[in-house]
Design a protein that fits this description.
Elements (H helix, E strand, L loop, with lengths): L9 H17 L13 H12 L7 H8 L3 H13 L3 E6 L2 E9 L1 H27 L3 H22 L16
Antiparallel strand pairs: 1-2
Length: 171
């Protein structure tokens, strides 16, 4: 089957797939950190916690924002806490509401990581993005938003699908 339906966008679609495939191969690998090693998944979690630290968001909010299941986020938070990169707190009067904060060691490691990544990758990317207008930048954001949601939507179960029940014998 030929791919004419993608038209002039075939190369871009291919680049999206290559990027996603490459990321999926390394996202759990501890590639970063000087004193403590951490993975790209763990970087994203720390970045979100740093970005919203003053708002004291709970773990459910972070899971939704990152597009991770609550179980996956909990697994990585546990690893980050065990490594000393995150700290967990309870909101006063609500022991179920877990609030996450990046520890001083986590902040130190993240600052080093961000300087290294900015020089290695993001300076070039940001320079390229600086060459487009704010309107074009909004289009780029929308492209990534559309691409970023297709996989989450495909994981949802179809709405209003009839449920078939099978009786368990002997109970």
């Amino acid at each position: 089957m030929k791919l004419e339906w993608m038209g002039a966008y075939r190369d871009i679609v291919g680049d999206f797939y290559r990027s996603a495939n490459g990321y999926s191969q390394i996202c759990k690998t501890e590639l970063f950190g000087d004193k403590i090693r951490f993975s790209p998944y763990e970087v994203q979690i720390m970045e979100h916690i740093l970005e919203y630290a003053e708002q004291h968001k709970n773990m459910k909010w972070y899971a939704e924002r990152l597009g991770l299941s609550q179980a996956t986020l909990s697994k990585y938070v546990r690893k980050l806490v065990d490594k000393g990169l995150l700290e967990k707190y309870n909101r006063e009067g609500n022991r179920k509401d877990i609030i996450l904060m990046v520890s001083p060691l986590g902040l130190e490691e993240y600052e080093r990581y961000s300087q290294q990544m900015k020089a290695a990758i993001f300076d070039e990317l940001f320079h390229l993005l600086d060459s487009i207008s704010p309107e074009e930048l909004e289009i780029v954001k929308k492209v990534f938003a559309i691409y970023g949601r297709w996989h989450r939507e495909s994981l949802k179960s179809p709405k209003d699908r009839p449920v078939s029940l099978i009786k368990v014998e002997g109970r």
